[in-house]
Design brief:
By secondary structure, the chain is of the alpha+beta class. Helix content is about 25%, strand content about 25%. The chain has one domain. It contains 3 helices and 6 strands; from the N terminus they run H-E-E-E-E-E-E-H-H. Bound molecules: zinc ion.
Length: about 120
């Protein structure tokens, strides 16, 4: 046993077994309904989140990761998206301790599972 590090890791590992339900796809069918996109298969509103992966002084700063998903079907897409430098992106992980953030950002499935259960539906 090597103390706190291991214990934290184990606690995190145990938590998100649900993250396995997410399946990455290149696209799924959505239709626009009263200003928001909904899944044609289950009628759940599509949800999305974009985050920066490059530091502000990087020439790639505007290249972000954009995720979108359907909680009903458990499918998601992840792609590089372009977000202008002057547009502030809300940081859904801002309140989390750094090691927790890192842990979530290390896996798209974990991140989506977290966002899906902590974010308000974008309506
Ligand atoms: Zn669906």
């Amino acid at each position: 046993m090597d103390g706190w590090g291991t214990m934290h890791l184990m606690a995190y590992r145990r938590e998100p077994s649900r993250s396995r339900r997410w399946r990455k796809v290149s696209r799924w069918d959505t239709v626009q309904d009263q200003g928001c996109w909904i899944c044609t298969a289950c009628r759940t509103a599509m949800r999305s989140y974009a985050y920066r992966i490059h530091p502000a002084d990087s020439p790639h700063y505007e290249r972000c990761i954009g995720l979108s998903w359907c909680s009903g079907c458990g499918v998601y897409t992840g792609a590089t998206v372009h977000v202008p430098r002057d547009r502030a992106l809300p940081d859904a992980l801002a309140a989390l301790p750094p090691e927790r953030r890192e842990w979530l950002l290390a896996s798209e499935r974990r991140l989506i599972e977290y966002l899906d259960s902590h974010m308000e539906a974008a309506r």
